[in-house]
Design brief:
Elements lengths: L8 H35 L2 H7 L8 H24 L5 H23 L5 H21 L7
Helix pairs in contact: 1-3, 1-5, 3-4, 4-5
Length: 145
């Protein structure tokens, strides 16, 4: 008989269910945020964007549009592969892409003197890392068979 404690299958399954619910919740929240921000950056006029996001007034419009498109793609990547269970490994890749965007935004905002943006950037980064870790390692979505 082993000296190691036995973990019941029910407890592991229950923990996986809780983690799965937490992951879905964070995926939806982050996807909605990034879809909304991405659409705004893609279609709004610079004046409207600058009122909401002052940094957009000081960069090329094409850069703002590019960031918006990448955010939309990241949002789609967070949900679509998992919902449809087609190549669900794309979900942690989408989360990793968002994490990269957030990592790159930190020095950008520091350089521009937008320290107030860093809190949200770090929060979004942590959410994206949580999704990437959870969907790649702890509770991956199984592909449709």
């Amino acid at each position: 008989m082993s000296n190691y404690p036995m973990v019941s299958i029910q407890k592991v399954s229950q923990e996986s269910n809780v983690l799965n619910i937490a992951l879905w919740t964070v995926q939806v929240i982050l996807a909605v945020l990034f879809l909304t921000l991405g659409v705004l950056k893609t279609v709004w006029a610079v004046e409207q964007l600058a009122a909401l996001m002052p940094w957009t007034a000081g960069v090329l419009l094409n850069f703002v549009r590019f960031v918006g498109i990448t955010e939309i793609l990241g949002a789609v990547g967070l949900l679509a592969p998992s919902i449809f269970r087609i190549n669900p490994v794309l979900t942690p890749l989408g989360a990793t892409g968002i994490a990269v965007i957030m990592i790159l935004s930190v020095p950008f905002h520091i350089y521009r003197g937008d320290g107030s943006q860093l809190g949200l950037n770090v929060l979004f980064l942590l959410m994206a890392v949580f999704i990437a870790w959870g969907r790649l390692i702890k509770v991956p979505i199984q592909p449709r068979s």
